[in-house]
Write a structure and sequence with these properties.
The protein is an alpha+beta fold and 703 residues long. It has 16 helices and 26 strands. The chain is globular and about 75 Å long.
Length: 703
C-alpha cells in the first residue's frame, strides 16, 4: 500500500536503511574506479621542529610503490585559509602527527609498508604541550568558537559573590576528547583532465569544493565533491581535513584515482579534538536559593597553527537568572594538534561544570536540585535581555521528575546503600542554541505525479534524506512515497554543512520554500506537465541568516541513576532519561535516535572517554579504540528520550530546532551528580574511572 502519511513528526523509516544494512551503500573509501591506488601518510615523530632530511629510496624500491610525496616534490598549493590544510608545503613540524610524507602504491598494504620504509631525520626543538590554569602564556581571546565574545560581564560579580549568604567556588576538569566516528576520515580523488572529482567523508561537500578549488587554483565549477553516505562525524568532518587534500595531491601527481583512508590512530592529530578545559565556577545565592552572582571562567588550549577556543563559558550566559555575571575564556597556544568541533562544542564541557556547581549549591542549601533550577528560571535571556522564542525547561524538569519518580528521592547526599553497592540519582539541565544558515534547493514536479527535491544536504547517519522528503511532502500536500530526494553532491544546489544541529533547519527551510512555490504554480496551471517537468527554486539568504529579536535555544533535562561498587570503584549507569523541548519534532523515529545517541556519548564522556597529552613526547596517549574507550552495548543501560512538542513561530517554516547535540549536553553532569548522591563524594574531574572513584571512596573512609 502506498505511504500516504505526510505529517511532519511521523516516525518514517530511513530511506537508505536497506542499502546500509546490505552493504550496497558506498562510502568514500569504497569507490572502485578503474586504476585506483591507495596512499598512506607518514606522520611526524617529534612534537616540534623541522624535517632535516627524508630518505624515500627504500620505500620506492618496494613492490607496488608508485610515488612518495614530500615537501620537496608535492604539488604547490595556494595559501590556505585553514593552515591545517597546508600539508607537504614546507619542512615545518608544528606538532607530533603532522604529515611529512605520503606513500602512494597499488595496494593499501604496499602503501603502508612503504610508509614504514621512509626514513625521516628531524631537527627537534623544545616543546610545550601542558595546559595549566596559571600558564604564563595564557591570554583572553576576543572571540571564542562560534563568534561569541570571549569575555562578558554584568553588574558587580566579584562584589556580589564576596557578600553572598551562600557561596560555591569549585574547579572542574574535562580532559581532551576525541571524535571516533564509525567511518574514519577518507577520500577518493581523481582528475578528469582539468576537472577534480572527489568522494569525501565530509559533513559538507559545498565547503570542501570551495576549499579544494582555492587550494588547486580551479574555478569551483571544475570541482565536484560527493558525500553521499557518511558514517558519522560529530564535528570532526565539519570542515575539510588534510586527508582530502592529500588524496587530490596524490591523484594529481600520479594521474591515477587515489584513496586516502586515515588509520584510526591518526585521527586525534589530524582531524581535531575537543580541547581540555579547566573550569572555575562560582555561584552566590541568598538563603532562599536565588542566584545573586554567577561566575564561570574557562582555560583551554589551542595549537600554534591556528586559534580555536572551546566556548565552554557561553552556556552560563543563557541558563539562569542572576543580576551579576562573569563569563570569560583564556587560551594557551601550545605545540599540540589543532582542536576543533566535537558534538556540542562548548555546551558539553561547559554544562558539566555549571550543572555540577548547581548541584553543589543545592546540597549547600539543602534544596531539591530540580526546584533550585526552577527557582532560578529567567524571564528573558540573561546575557542579551532578549525574550526567548520558546523556553520550556521547567516543563522538561517537571516531566522528567515525574517519569523518574524524583519525588521519592532522599535529597541528602550519600552514602545510599543497596547491598554491596551505593545507589544514587542526579539531574542536570541542558541547552543548545538554534543555529540556521542560508541554503538553496530546487523542487520538480514530473508528469508521472512524482516529485524530486535537490539540495546538497549531507546525511551523516541522521536520516536527512527521509526528513527532507517529509518536509517536501508536507509542503506539497502529497503522499511521502511520491517524493524523491537527491543530496550529497556539490553539483546539487549549494547548502551548508551538517553541523551545529543546524542541518535540517537550514536545508528544510529551502526545501519548504521551493515546494511551496511549486505547489502554487501547479495550482495555477492547467493541462499536462511538459516531459521535463516543472521546477522551482529557493534561496533563503537574507531570511535564514537575518537577525532575530528572540533568543532561540533548545532545552532539556537529564536524569540518571547509578550504582557504585565500593570494592572496585566501578560506576554503572542503571538508567538515563532525557526530556527535551526542541521545537516541532519532524520525525519521531530519527529524533529519538539522535537524542539517545547524544546521551550515550555523554555517558562515555562521564565514565570512559578521556585522553592524556604526554608531556615528554607531545602526543595523545589514547589514540585508538584500544585505549580510548567509547561505550559499547554492555555499557548502555535503559535509555529513554521524550520531548515536549513546542509551537515556536520564530524559528523556520517547520518550527523545528536541532536535536543532534542537546542529548550529550547535560548527561555527564547528571551522572556525576548521581555519583555524588550515591557516595557523598564530589568528583570534579572526568572521566569517573574506577581508579579515580575508588581513590575518592578511600579518601572519604580515611577521613
Amino acid at each position: 500500500m502506498a505511504d500516504t502519511n505526510t505529517a511532519l513528526g511521523a516516525p518514517a523509516e530511513r530511506r537508505e536503511g536497506r542499502e546500509k544494512v546490505t552493504g550496497t551503500a558506498r562510502y568514500a573509501a569504497e569507490q572502485r574506479f578503474s586504476g585506483r591506488v591507495h596512499a598512506w601518510p607518514v606522520t611526524a615523530a617529534v612534537a616540534r621542529g623541522t624535517v632535516r632530511t627524508i630518505d624515500t629510496g627504500d620505500a620506492l624500491d618496494l613492490p607496488g610503490v608508485l610515488a612518495v610525496l614530500t615537501h620537496e616534490n608535492a604539488p604547490r598549493l595556494a595559501d590556505a585559509d585553514d593552515p591545517t590544510l597546508a600539508v607537504l608545503q614546507n619542512s615545518r613540524v608544528p606538532h607530533r602527527g603532522w604529515p611529512v610524507a605520503l606513500v602512494v602504491a597499488e595496494t593499501l598494504e604496499a602503501a603502508r609498508a612503504g610508509a614504514g620504509a621512509v626514513r625521516v631525520e628531524y631537527a627537534a626543538r623544545d616543546h610545550d604541550v601542558t595546559l595549566t590554569d596559571d600558564h604564563p602564556e595564557a591570554y583572553e581571546p576576543e572571540e571564542a568558537n562560534g563568534g561569541y565574545p570571549g569575555h562578558r560581564e554584568r553588574g558587580d560579580p566579584e562584589g556580589a559573590f564576596a557578600s553572598a549568604a551562600v557561596r560555591i567556588d569549585s574547579a572542574y576538569r574535562v580532559p581532551p576528547l576525541h571524535n571516533h566516528p564509525m567511518e574514519p576520515h577518507a577520500a577518493t580523488a581523481r582528475w578528469d583532465g582539468h576537472r577534480l572529482v572527489v568522494h569525501d567523508s565530509s559533513q559538507g561537500a559545498t565547503a570542501v569544493r570551495a576549499t579544494l578549488a582555492a587550494l588547486f587554483r580551479l574555478p569551483e565549477e571544475r570541482v565536484t565533491v560527493v558525500s553521499e553516505h557518511v558514517g558519522g562525524g560529530f564535528g570532526s568532518k565539519g570542515t575539510p581535513r588534510p586527508h582530502v587534500v592529500l588524496a587530490a595531491m596524490a591523484a594529481q601527481r600520479t594521474g591515477r584515482p587515489v584513496t586516502v583512508a586515515l588509520p584510526r590512530r591518526f585521527l586525534p592529530a589530524l582531524v581535531g579534538h575537543r580541547a581540555p578545559t579547566l573550569h572555575r565556577v562560582r555561584l552566590a545565592a541568598d538563603e532562599q536559593g536565588s542566584l545573586t552572582a554567577l561566575l564561570h571562567e574557562v582555560t583551554t588550549h589551542s595549537s600554534r597553527i591556528k586559534e580555536f577556543v572551546e566556548q565552554a563559558a557561553v552556556p552560563a550566559r543563557v541558563m539562569y537568572a542572576s543580576p551579576h555575571s562573569l563569563t570569560a575564556h583564556r587560551v594557551v597556544r601550545l605545540d599540540v594538534p589543532s582542536p576543533s568541533w566535537m558534538r556540542a562544542p562548548g555546551e558539553a564541557p561547559g554544562m558539566f561544570a555549571l550543572e555540577s556547581a548547581m548541584d553543589e549549591l543545592a546540597v549547600a542549601l539543602g534544596a531539591d536540585p530540580v526546584e533550585l533550577r526552577v527557582t532560578n528560571e529567567p524571564d528573558t535571556e540573561p546575557d542579551s535581555g532578549k525574550p526567548f522564542s520558546s523556553r520550556h525547561l521547567v516543563e522538561c524538569l517537571r516531566e522528567g521528575a515525574r517519569r523518574f519518580d524524583w519525588a521519592h528521592r532522599d535529597h541528602r547526599p550519600g552514602p545510599h546503600t543497596s547491598g554491596p553497592l551505593l545507589v544514587g540519582s542526579g539531574v542536570a539541565a541542558a541547552v543548545y542554541p538554534v543555529l540556521v544558515q542560508p541554503s538553496t534547493a530546487t523542487a520538480r514536479a514530473l508528469p508521472d505525479g512524482s516529485f524530486t527535491v535537490r539540495v546538497n544536504a549531507t546525511d551523516i547517519g541522521t536520516g536527512a534524506r527521509t526528513v527532507l522528503a517529509q518536509v517536501a511532502a508536507d509542503a506539497l500536500g502529497v503522499p511521502l512515497d511520491r517524493v524523491r530526494t537527491e543530496i550529497g553532491s556539490s553539483d546539487l544546489p549549494s547548502a551548508p554543512l551538517a553541523g551545529g544541529s543546524s542541518g535540517t533547519a537550514s536545508w528544510g527551510w529551502a526545501v519548504h520554500d521551493a515546494c511551496t512555490r511549486l505547489r502554487a504554480r501547479l495550482t495555477e496551471r492547467s493541462g499536462p506537465l511538459p516531459e521535463s517537468g516543472l521546477t522551482t527554486s529557493a534561496d533563503t539568504a537574507g531570511s535564514a541568516d537575518a537577525d532575530s529579536d528572540y533568543a532561540r535555544h533548545a532545552f532539556g533535562a537529564h536524569f540518571a541513576e547509578v550504582a557504585v561498587d565500593t570494592v572496585t570503584g566501578e560506576v554503572r549507569v542503571r538508567r538515563l532519561l532525557g526530556v527535551y523541548a526542541a521545537g516541532h519534532i519532524l520525525n519521531a523515529r530519527t529524533a529519538r535516535s539522535q537524542f539517545i545517541g547524544g546521551m550515550t556519548m555523554g555517558l562515555g564522556m562521564a565514565l570512559t572517554e578521556g585522553s592524556t597529552m604526554d608531556a615528554a613526547f607531545g602526543d595523545f596517549t589514547e589514540s585508538d579504540l584500544a585505549a580510548y574507550h567509547v561505550p559499547v552495548h554492555a555499557d548502555v543501560p535503559a535509555v529513554e528520550a521524550h520531548w515536549i512538542d513546542e509551537d515556536d513561530p520564530h524559528l523556520n517554516p517547520m518550527g523545528s530546532k536541532g536535536v543532534g547535540e542537546i542529548g550529550i549536553v547535560g548527561t555527564a553532569a547528571a551522572i556525576g551528580n548521581a555519583v555524588h548522591h550515591a557516595t557523598g563524594v564530589r568528583f570534579r574531574e572526568l572521566p569517573l574511572t574506577p581508579d579515580r572513584v575508588l581513590a575518592g571512596l578511600e579518601s572519604r573512609s580515611g577521613s
